[in-house]
Every structure is written in C-alpha cells, then in structure tokens.
Amino acid sequence: MRSKGQLPALTNARLLSLSMGYLGLQITFGIESASLSRLYQSFGAEVDDLALLWLAGPVAGLVVQPLVGRWSDFTWTRWGRRRPWIMGSGMIAVGALVGIAYAPSLAWAIAMVWLLELAMNALNAPYRALVGDTLPLHQQGRGFAMQTVFIGLGAFLGAMTPKLLSLAGVANISTLAATPESIRIAFLLAAACLAVSVGGTVLSIREHGREDYARFGIAIAQRPRDRAPLAARALSTLVMLAPFRRIAAMQFFAWAALYLFWVYATPIVAMGTFGAANVQDPQYGAGADWVGVMFATYNGVAGLFAFLLPRVFDRYGVSVVHAAALMVGGAGFVGVAIAGSPGTLIVCSACIGIAYASLISSPFVLASALVARTEAGTAIGLMNIFIVAPQLVMGFAAGAVIGWLSPGSPEIALLGAGMFCVIAAIICGGHPRIATA
Predict the structure, then answer these.
(1) The domain 1-217 is classified under which CATH number: 3.50.50.60, 3.40.50.450, 3.40.30.10, 1.20.1250.20?
(2) DSSP per residue over 161-190, as a string?
C-alpha cells in the first residue's frame, strides 16, 4: 500500500520505458565523440583548429542544461512538465543529426553540431528529472541505475558503429569536402535510434499534474524570487566554491586530459599508428574506425570497473583509489600518443576506462563529504562547473599551444594529457577527506 506523500510505484516495463531514451542519447554521443574530429577534417579543418571546433558540447552543457532544467521545473501544460521540452529538443536533435549526415560544407557541419549539442543538453536535464517526477523514493535508485545501464550500452554501441559499418562493406574513406559514407550512415542511424527511444518514453510515460501531487500529499515548489543584489549573489557563490578548491583543481587537470583525448585521438591514431598521409588515405579511415573501437573499449571498461569501485573505496579510501586510477589513465594517454600497434591502443584505452570510471564517481563522493546533506544539490551544480570549465579552457587554448610547440603533430596533446593526470593524482592524493570503511 502506498504511503501518503509518496508517488505510486511503476512496473518494471514502465521503468524500462522511462530510461530507454538514454540509449538513443548515448548512441548519438558515442557516434559523435568517435567521429567529430574525422568529420571536421574531412571538410578541410586543420588539426590545430579541432579543440576550438569541439567547444559546442562544453558551452551547451554549461549554459543550456541548467537553464532548461530550471525552466522545466515550472512548466505546467496539459502534456506534462518535462515532456514538451523532451519532445521539442528531441525533434531538433534528430533534425540536426540528419543535417550533419548531409553536410555540404565545414560551416554547415559546425552549425549542425552546435544545434545538436544545444538540443541534446536541453533534452538531458528534463529527462533526468523525470525519475524524481514519476518514481517513489524506493524506486528512484533503480531508475537511475537503469539509466546508467542504458548510458553505458549506448556509448559502447555508438562508438562501435563506424567500425561495424566498415566491416559490413560501407566505404569509410573521406573524399575532399564530403562526409565519409560510413559516418553519414552512422549519424542517420543515431537519428533513428534517438527518435525511437525518446519517442517511446514520451508516448509511454504519464507525468503527474498539480492535482495529482495534491492528491498524493506532495508539496510542489513555487518559483523562487531572488531579490538579492548581483554582487551579493556573486559573493555567495564564491563562498560556496571555497571548500571545493582542491577538488576543482583536481577536476580541472583530469577533465582537460580527457577533452584532449576526445579531440586528438583520431588524427593521432590515424596518422601515427596507422601511418595515414592525409584524410583521403584509406589508412586514415582504418585508423579513425579504430578510434571508435578504442572509445567503445574505454566506456566498456569504465562500466565494468564501476561495479568494483564501492568495494575498493571501502578498503583503500576514495582519494587513494582515485589518485591511482588517474595515474593509470595518464599512462594510457601517453601510450596512445606513442603506440605502435592497434593492440597496444586497446590496452591504453582500457587504462583510460579505469580513470574514467573513477572520474565520474570519486569526485562526487569527495564533494559530498564537504557539504551538509541538504546542500547536495548545490554540490552537484558546482561539480558540473568543474567539469565544463577545463574543457572550455582547452578548447580555446590547446590548438594555439600545440600549433606553437609542435605544428601538425598533435601527439604532444596526449603527452600533455598524461602529465595533467599525474598532476590531478598528486592533488587528489593530498586530499584531507579520505572516505574509508
């Protein structure tokens, strides 16, 4: 029997429907992350420009996701609170994916990628909020866990898609100012998966209205009015940030390293390990496809290692484990820069996966130890800033620095990523709040 103040429980089938949109979202992200540098280079983008061209994701994550998440909190329509945002942004994302697939120029491809990132971030925030909106407390853990399963599976499938298409005989060779056929089909498949999975959630999940919440005995937050002066609000934010300064520094170097990997893995592997002379070289297509396998590997390893983390945390402490994982990841980044064989790249990707698994969990555990339980939401918001800010810095600065230090040879980017991971590990190893059993 449902207690007062609790939402009614959903069946397992409804839980599945609630989370299935993340499969399409992460397939899209997996294809995009494994193919974006390749897409830009196919239209003539220089290696030194790639970091700047990747900025759409971090900018959208910093601006759009918090805004749309907040706006959806106070959107009450006959179709629900979250579903109008999810459906609208989902349709825009599908259109952007089709636009990328048939991009006639670099400028068009850039514009469609920006549109895609804005739409995906607008979709993500209200989609996450659906769990709290529709599930009672005792089912929310299962709801988020199911989303995590779809996130891992989708990222793996998306990253593998270009390679699977090549194995099926689809051409993966770039021609001047044109999207490779395998990448075109991959983005179209992403559009179809996103439409089906998000549409399935929208059509199958019923949101509760104000009357429903009143009947369940659940109070609904009213839109707050912050009348404090801007300077006072800015000072308040700085005060909140102060206890997180060590975590912020650690996150800066770790996420800067991961961003450099996302941006430069394709040209480094294609032109280094596979020896491609240019984007039109068949070896470039083979190397770029292998990057998808690498991305699938690190996501898969991250998913498996995540199951072990709680037990390892209990035994050795969060800070120690995270520092060790970052060191392993740093070795993986350096290994990718100097690898001489595809097999070595897979081993390096597995090392990066270990670091990635810890990176998306350990800092949040450390942050939670610094705040009161009632301030957990604030901590999560601040952590998002620490993730996005280093990507923005790398996006604006990495290309110029690499062009100055080593023109046309991006391997130095991943050597730098390895160094960044070592710095992050040293910072983490000195963290005063170590969670132990």
Answers:
(1) 1.20.1250.20
(2) HHHHHHHTT------TTS--HHHHHHHHHH
